[in-house]
Amino acid sequence: MAYTPEQAHDLATEILLALVERPDELSHFMGASGLNPDDLRQIAQRPDIAVFLLDFVVESDERIHEFAQALQLRPHDVMAARTALAGPGSYGWESD
User: Fold this and answer.
1) Predicted TM-score (pTM) of this structure
2) What is the 3-state secondary structure (H, E, C) of the chain?
3) Are the CB atoms for 19 and 25 separated by under 8 Å?
4) Neighbours of 41 (CB within 10 A)
5) Which burial class, exposed, middle or buried, applies to 55 when counting CB atoms under 10 A from its CB (0-12, 13-18, 19+)?
6) What distance in Å separates the CA atoms of residue 45 and residue 85, rounded to the nearest whole number?
7) In 3D, which of 74, 77, 63, 72 has the Cα closest to residue 28?
8) What's the first-to-final CA gap in the chain, in angstroms?
């Protein structure tokens, strides 16, 4: 499935909400991003956080499969959303 940038942002928001439900993953994300909870609240709507969230999910095979399953998607759909935001070839994959 090809994503529009708006759909990709919506998916990133869904991922953020799912991430909040997983304290260990949220802690890992916060550590990787250098954010604290107040920062996260303030930047949750910024466009650049969407790409970072999607990057966080796709950096681990286990993580991308868990989030795809939780959101009833294919792992490729998460990557397609990331590509819609950052552009084709930005992660070495092309969108379909």
Assistant:
1) 0.80
2) CCCCHHHHHHHHHHHHHHHHCCHHHHHHHHHHHCCCHHHHHHHCCCHHHHHHHHHHHHCCHHHHHHHHHHCCCCHHHHHHHHHHHHCCCCCCCCCC
3) yes
4) 10
5) middle
6) 14
7) 63
8) 7
Average pLDDT per consecutive 10 residues, the chain (96 residues; last block may be shorter): 89 91 91 83 75 91 94 93 79 50
Place of tokens 């950052």: 86
Residue pair 80/89 in contact (Cβ under 8 Å)? The answer is no
Count Cβ atoms below 10 Å from residue 65 Cβ, excluding itself. 14
